[in-house]
Design brief:
Structural class: alpha/beta
CATH topology of the largest domain: Rossmann fold
Strand order of the largest sheet: 3-2-1-4-5-6-7
Strand content: 5-15%
Helix content: 25-40%
Oligomer: single chain
CATH class of the largest domain: Alpha Beta
CATH architecture of the largest domain: 3-Layer(aba) Sandwich
Number of strands: 13
Number of helices: 14
Largest sheet: 7 strands, parallel
Length: 375
């Protein structure tokens, strides 16, 4: 099975979708029977260490979207291309694409107009030319089928793992640097992306001032080019009431994040929308109990191993955080459940599923694409 991977992710900052691409390819490579030959086509600004596949195919013309839409399909004519990061050349034949979520349709107000419009056009063209679509959850599959009019048989689910954190060596210095040594604290993964619900989390923290010995560590940044700034005023208003209990860590490395998880009392992740939801799985893998919203994708990813809250209720978010922070027995129970849940499923399982999908399909003749009318 000769396969070329869309290596645009090797020139991008490592976030959720890039993580999935890297870990899937690393797991496929580690399985000696998984692929006879895999290449990663990379742009000229690629970082070599960002590819887990040693066999690179430099495609030095253009960069960014122009590289992906023009240079990449020209360089892979007649070959099977795998794109794993929510995007790919829209007119490429013999193309398998992973679409992580339908947020540009389901939460359009959270994106800039240009980003939202481009991705809607891109998705509408991709579904007409890529015979198979991959995604990360049954929830995302249902939204892809409903919004893009794709037959269910064309969409396959490959769920991410969290065992990449096993390879990461924690950097505990960040705990001391942030003044958290010997302190009970809750990690909050949030950003200016309104879907992360940081405004309500900050409002919830305003109700937890009586937990004087507890701190709340906010981790994450924002891509202002991608995300709409409609939520920014609300964040600013909520941030106005911040106290010494709140610690803003900003962007942290994987090693620093692992150290924070290992020493934390819990993670709060009451997201309003996810395609899958990797942060709570990563936290639970490190022994950090997770509080998540009842969003279908998060429920699918976390099962019975996480505590659930109403993401639209500041009161409920605060109550669940207080319960987890003050009940040692409850916290221990969720810690053990999270470890069992996340260690039972890993990237090797995901890679085997991906390989089975790729081997089970024939792309030689460019099969006709069945697209039905969306409801």
């Amino acid at each position: 099975m000769h396969l070329v991977v869309n290596g645009k992710f090797t020139a991008q900052r490592l976030t959720g979708v890039q993580r999935v691409a890297y870990e899937l390819m690393r797991a496929v490579r580690s399985n000696q029977t998984a692929a006879d030959e895999i290449e990663v086509a990379v742009p000229r600004n690629a970082i070599a260490s960002a590819s887990p596949i040693e066999r690179l195919r430099p495609v030095p013309w253009l960069k960014g979207d122009l590289w992906e839409q023009i240079a990449l399909p020209l360089a892979t004519r007649g070959e099977l291309l795998l794109s794993l990061c929510n995007s790919g050349p829209v007119f490429k034949r013999r193309h398998v694409v992973m679409v992580h979520d339908m947020a540009v349709y389901d939460t359009p107000h959270t994106f800039s107009w240009t980003f939202r419009t481009w991705y809607r056009v891109k998705f509408s063209l991709l579904v007409r030319h890529a015979p198979i679509l991959l995604t990360v959850s049954d929830f995302s599959k249902s939204r892809i089928c409903a919004l893009l009019g794709v037959e269910e048989s064309r969409v396959r689910v490959v769920r991410p793992g969290a065992d990449h954190f096993e390879r990461i060596v924690p950097e505990p210095a960040i705990v001391e640097r942030l003044g958290l040594s010997g302190v009970k604290y809750c990690v909050i993964v949030g950003s200016l992306d309104p879907r992360k619900n940081l405004a309500r989390v900050l409002a919830a923290l305003g109700r937890l001032g009586h937990l004087r010995d507890v701190k709340f560590v906010i981790v994450g940044g924002a891509n202002t080019r991608v995300f709409a700034q409609a939520g920014a005023p609300h964040l600013a208003a909520a941030a106005g009431g911040e106290t010494a209990q709140i610690v803003r860590a900003g962007y942290v490395s994987d090693a620093e994040l692992k150290a924070l998880y290992e020493h934390a009392a819990c993670l709060a992740f009451p997201s309003l929308y996810e395609g899958f939801g990797l942060p709570p799985l990563e936290a639970m893998y490190c022994g950090c109990p997770a509080i998540v919203s009842r969003h279908p994708a998060l429920a699918e990813a976390c099962g019975d191993a996480a505590m659930y809250c109403d993401a639209e209720s500041v009161e409920d978010i605060a109550q669940k955080m207080e319960r987890m922070l003050t009940d040692d027995a409850l916290r221990t129970r969720y810690k053990q459940a999270g470890l069992l849940h996340t260690h039972a499923h890993g990237w090797d399982r995901a890679a085997r599923e991906l390989t089975k999908i790729l081997r089970g399909e024939t792309y030689e003749t460019g099969p006709a694409i069945a697209v039905r009318s969306a409801a």
